[in-house]
Structures are given as structure tokens and as C-alpha cells.
From TrEMBL:
InterPro entries in alphabetical order: MKRN2OS-like, MKRN2OS-like_C
The protein's name: MKROS protein
Top-rank taxon: Eukaryota
Pfam family, one: DUF4796_C
MKRN2 opposite strand protein-like C-terminal domain residues: 2-112
């Protein structure tokens, strides 16, 4: 994937094009929502400039990067006439399935790597078949 990652910490909002290679990507928009996909970057940029995300407002436990992400998702949901998600709902619906999947993959990778197996990427033409 190519793109920019927005994150929020005690220094405010950051935009980074690299340094997040080990993160887990969680799709939040259905592929058929073309209009929303086209607006996403602009909506996120506008949202990140709001006063709520100034550095002095950051609080490690209550107003952090998770809060930033959830508030943005809920802003988009409300604009589309949908209800806001609680932290628990957001975690259960979006985060847990992807982290479980990543955990299973990492466990399998570790088991294979420690049992004299070689993990070799498929050649490009084999991946397409």
C-alpha cells in the first residue's frame, strides 16, 4: 500500500509516508463506496487541523491517537447518517479481527522459521494464478 499515515501524540498530528511498514492496515470503507474513498484524504486532512487535536490537548489515557482515529471514523459515519461507534464496538468490529489474523500469521511464521523450513516469496507470475 502507498499512502500517508496520520497519527496524534503529545506533539500534535503527524503525517508520515514511511515508518509504518510494520503496522496493520484495517479497511474501514467498503470498496463500492467510491465517492467516500475519493473524499477520504480531504476529510482526514480537515479533521486533523481541528482545535481538538492540538498538542496541548493530548492526554495519554483519554485523548490520544485511538481517540483521534475513532472520532474521525464517527465523524464520517454521522455524515453518512449512521450512528457513532463506542470504543468497545470499534475495537470489536474493526481492530480485534485484524489483530487476531495478524497474531495467527505471526505464530505460524515463527513456528515455520524455527523448524528448518525456508519461507520463500512466490515469483510474481505464480502469485497471479
Amino acid at each position: 500500500f502507498a499512502g500517508v499515515v496520520y497519527n496524534y501524540d503529545q506533539e500534535g498530528v503527524h503525517r508520515a509516508g514511511s515508518g509504518w511498514e510494520q503496522c496493520i492496515s484495517i479497511p474501514l470503507v467498503q470498496p463500492d463506496m467510491w465517492e467516500l474513498l475519493q473524499q477520504w484524504d480531504n476529510l482526514l486532512e480537515e479533521f486533523s487541523l481541528e482545535e481538538a487535536w492540538l498538542p496541548h490537548r493530548y492526554q495519554e489515557q483519554q485523548h490520544n491517537c485511538y481517540t483521534f482515529a475513532l472520532a474521525f471514523v464517527n465523524r464520517v459515519r454521522r455524515a453518512r447518517g449512521r450512528g457513532a461507534l463506542s470504543k468497545a464496538q470499534f475495537t470489536e468490529r474493526f481492530l480485534l479481527p485484524r489483530t487476531r489474523e495478524a497474531s495467527r500469521y505471526l505464530t505460524l511464521h515463527q513456528q515455520l522459521a524455527h523448524r528448518d523450513f525456508y519461507i520463500v516469496p512466490l515469483a510474481e507470475q505464480e502469485q497471479d494464478s
